[in-house]
Amino acid sequence: QVQLVESGGGLVQAGGSLRLSCAASGRTFSREPMGWFRQTPGKEREFVARINWPTYLTYYADSVKGRFTISRDNAKNTLNLQMNSLKPEDTAVYYCNRYPVGTGDYWGQGTQVTVSS
Predict the structure, then answer these.
(1) How buried is 113 (Cβ within 10 angstroms: 0-12 exposed, 13-18 middle, 19+ buried)?
(2) Residue 26, Cα to own-chain centre: how many angstroms?
(3) How far apart are alpha carbons 101 and 38 in whole angstroms?
(4) CA terminus-to-terminus distance, the chain
(5) Alpha-carbon 96 to chain mean position
(6) Tens digit of pLDDT per residue, the chain (117 long)?
(7) Which single residue of 24, 53, 81, 96 could bond 29 by disulfide (Cβ 3.0 to 4.6 Å)?
(8) Which three-class secondary structure string do you get for 18-49?
(9) How many CA atoms lie within 13 A of 14 on its CB side?
(10) Helices and strands of the chain, counted as H and E runs
């Protein structure tokens, strides 16, 4: 059974930092490209960042480039997102999943990030 458990969210002031983690199990996530996504109420879930396998090449949405860093620890089956210089517009629920996400793929509960101005 696939499980994706996101953690590390919280309330932070603009300019602050947070580090999100994702614990993945039930699939060989360690052999797949993985990504972070986010969603705000009334909007579609959007891509934030991804990290390929086995190249570990990274790609970012323009809105977070230079501020966020995605990384993975395949030995622990975890995916991380270091978020610096946070802005109020980064406020969202953040999710992890494989990339690209397949139709019908399971999504975890996500972790709420709130950035106050």
Answers:
(1) buried
(2) 18
(3) 13
(4) 40
(5) 5
(6) 789 999 999 999 999 999 999 999 887 788 899 999 999 999 999 999 999 999 999 999 999 999 999 999 988 889 999 999 999 999 999 999 999 998 888 999 999 999 999
(7) 24
(8) EEEEEEEECCCHHHCCEEEEEECCCCCCEEEE
(9) 5
(10) 0, 10
At 66, list the tokens: 């230079």
Residue type at position 95: Y
Task: Quote the CA–CA distance of 26 and 2 in Å, as a whole number.
Answer: 4
| Inter-residue contact 113 to 18 (CB < 8 Å) | yes
Distance CA 52, CA 55 (A): 6
